[in-house]
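Q: A small favour: would you put together sequence and C-alpha cells for a protein?
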Amino acid sequence: MPDLTPTQWMLAVLAALGMGVSKAGFAGVGLLHVLIFAFLFGARTSTGIVLPMLLVGDLGAVAAFRMHARWDYMRRTLPPACAGVILGAAFMSRLSDATFKPVLGWIILVLTLMQVARMLRRDWFGDVPHSRLFAWGMGLLAGGTTMLANSGGPIITLYLLSVGLPKLEFTGTNAWFFFIINAFKVPFSIGMGLIDRRTLFLNLVLSPVIVAGLIAGRWLIHRVPQRLFDGLLLAFAFLAALRLIGTF
C-alpha cells in the first residue's frame, strides 16, 4: 500500500469518485483522475495504478449500458486503437511527458473547435467524421494516448460526438470500447512493472468509491438533456486540452 497522507487520501478518493462518474457517460470528468494520480504518483507510475481501477469502472459501465452500444462504430476504431496501444507501449520509455502532453493537448483543442464549428454549421466538414480514414486516425490516436497517459477519453468523446451518437448510445459504445482497450493494455503494464501487488491493494481499497461514482453518474445521465450533455463533454475536452498544453 502506498504511504499517503490524509490529504493525499482525500485526493485519491475524489479521483476515484470522478472516475466512476466519467465511466457513466461524463467522459471529460476523466481528466480529474488523470491529473490527481499523476500528481500523487508521477505520470508514468500512475498509469499502472489507475488501469485496474479503470477496468472496475468499465465493468460497471458495461453492465449498466451494454444494450446501448453501437458495434458498427467500435469495429471501425478498435483495430487501430489496439495498434495505438502497441505503439504507445513501445514509445513509453522513450517519450517524455514534456514532449507528449502539449502535442496531445493541441490535437484535442483543434478537434474540439472543429466539433463546435460542426454544431453551429452542420454542413461544415461534410461526411468527414463518418469516413474510414477519420475513424482509423481517431482510433490510433486514442489507443496511443490511453497507453501513454490514460488520456484517450477526450479523443473518443470527440469521435462519438462528431458522428452524432445520442447520449445513451454514446455511453454504451464508450463503455465497451474502453473495457476492451483497457483489458488489452494490462499485459503491457504488467510487463513494464507498472502493476504489482502493492498497487493492486490500493485499487481494492478505492474500488467501492468508483462504484459510488458510477451510480451517481448513471443517475445524472438520465436527467441531463442531450444538448447540455454534448456541451459539457466539449467543455471538459477543451479544459483537458488547455491543461495538457500547460495553460493552467
